[in-house]
Design a protein that fits this description.
The protein is mostly helical. The chain is built from 13 helices and no strands.
Length: 310
């Protein structure tokens, strides 16, 4: 058994151990959720004579702390509930592809396959989280309009918010439900919205929370401010869509120029790694690879800044 075979077996074992660790982490969180639900059920059965507000408070206090883990926060923004089945479908294809790369390639093929698979999985989840975030932002003006109408007819900001949550749609409904549970548990509406806005990275909702906080402390015509904010968000969305349409060619060129060399390099490493092994054995080839990697990093960074600026 050669040293290369031992390295490949060690890599496969590490991937398998990582998958088992993710599986155990998901099972641990499931047990914690089940325990919280059981305790919540027992408390509600013992306090059946209390008001419905007290029951909601207990629900909010005992809800699982999803935001305590970076991976779970990222999956929450993507709208994914992590389960053992999700982790299995996430890890098993990577293990299969890595074993295939080990059988038909070399150690560089294994490294390239793992890098490519992890990159594609992260890009897929990031794209899903970005689309979910954009949809939330597009739903905010309609949410503000409904809240303003309820405030004009005489409702307070808290009651108008709670009534508007019931008429909202996903994915904004998920964020508002979490904030509403915190409010019913005793937290101020401003702080609840601020916490969820930072968790979901919705900057617009932070501004709304600040306006609501000022109105609750000092009074004033919060309905007029919220109405103007809704109109401003619509104008901003229209201008942003127009800018995206005008700069689509530039941004697409930047993404292609940034990722095409990386994709070709990873493809060559996976399917023809002998060329890279030969270059690594030669001092000049090694220096050329290092220089190419540095130039690619610098170029990808500036192209990313170019794509983000437009």
């Amino acid at each position: 058994m050669t040293a290369l075979t031992l390295w490949l077996m060690a890599g496969a074992i590490l991937l398998l151990a990582f998958g088992i660790l993710l599986w155990q982490n998901a099972q641990l969180h499931q047990r914690q959720d089940a325990t919280s639900a059981f305790v919540d059920q027992q408390i509600r059965s013992m306090a059946s004579q209390q008001t419905s507000t007290d029951d909601v408070e207990q629900n909010a206090v005992l809800q699982p702390r999803i935001e305590s883990n970076i991976l779970r926060r990222f999956l929450l923004r993507a709208g994914i509930i992590p389960t053992p089945i999700f982790y299995a479908f996430l890890v098993l294809p990577g293990i299969v592809l890595t074993l295939l790369a080990a059988m038909f390639g070399g150690i560089l093929s294994v490294i390239g396959t793992v890098f490519l698979y992890v990159t594609l999985i992260y890009f897929r989840l990031w794209l899903k989280a970005m689309r979910r975030h954009q949809k939330m932002v597009r739903q905010l003006p309609a949410f503000l309009d409904t809240m303003v109408r309820l405030t004009i007819v005489g409702n307070s900001l808290e009651s108008a918010f709670q009534a508007t949550v019931l008429s909202s749609e996903a994915p904004l409904r998920d964020l508002l439900d979490r904030a509403n549970r915190l409010v019913q548990a005793g937290m101020d509406l401003e702080h609840a919205l601020m916490q969820q806005a930072r968790l979901f990275h919705v900057i617009e909702l932070e501004l709304i929370a600040a306006v609501i906080g000022v109105a609750l402390r000092f009074g004033g015509r919060a309905d007029m401010v919220l109405e103007r904010m809704a109109a401003f968000m619509r104008d901003r969305e229209y201008a942003q869509n127009e800018l995206i349409a005008l700069s689509a060619e530039t941004r697409l060129s930047a993404w292609i120029l940034g990722f095409l060399p990386i994709g070709l390099g990873v493809f060559m490493i996976i399917f023809n790694n002998k060329m890279f092994v030969t270059m690594l054995d030669d001092p000049i080839g090694k220096n050329m690879l290092i220089g190419a990697a540095v130039l690619e990093i610098i170029g990808a960074y500036w192209l990313y800044r170019l794509a983000k600026s437009v």
